[in-house]
Design a protein that fits this description.
Length: about 210
Amino acid sequence: MMTFGEILKEKRLEKKLTLEQVEKAIKIRTKFLRSIEENDFKSFESTPTLRGFIRNYTSFLGFSIPQIMAFYRRQSEDRQQNLLPHPAPIIAGFKITPQLVTIFTVALLLIFFIGFLISQYLAFSGSPVLSVSYPPDNIVVNNPQIDVIGTSDPDSTLQINNQSIRMDDKGKFKVTIPLSAGLNQITIRATNKYQKTSSVTRQLRLEQ
């Protein structure tokens, strides 16, 4: 699955913009924009500053701010989990008895079982991630077809205007959709195995 920084970079390159051009447009230094795209946040003085830069960059590229911030929060949570300290080693000379081994084994199995139940509950109660990087909403085009580009959970079922769409093994998709003259609405819907659904709608006008 793409990180939110990769999604932003892909959109910038799609618009054929350099980091220097973006810096002039939104007054955020190139080094910070590059750090955001590379998911490297050590150069930011505070989390609120980082979030503000992400929001400005996201808005400039035409993305939905809540969706990109949801990606950022998920990556931040994963990073915090990876930074949790490892259990301390057993003190040398500690006497290990069969009873202690049994208690430790049972406790470990119980922890794994509870963790499994929690993960299943979260999977069941949560909707799949769905991000549409292109097209932006409410645009005017003169080409009778348009590419719809985005990402979702790889194990989800994806439909665009009720037509099933294939994703690659990383959850990426790119589909060309025909347009009719006037107002068009494109509805992208992802459904996971628990029948939880996420949807994104794009409206655009074809003028010929």
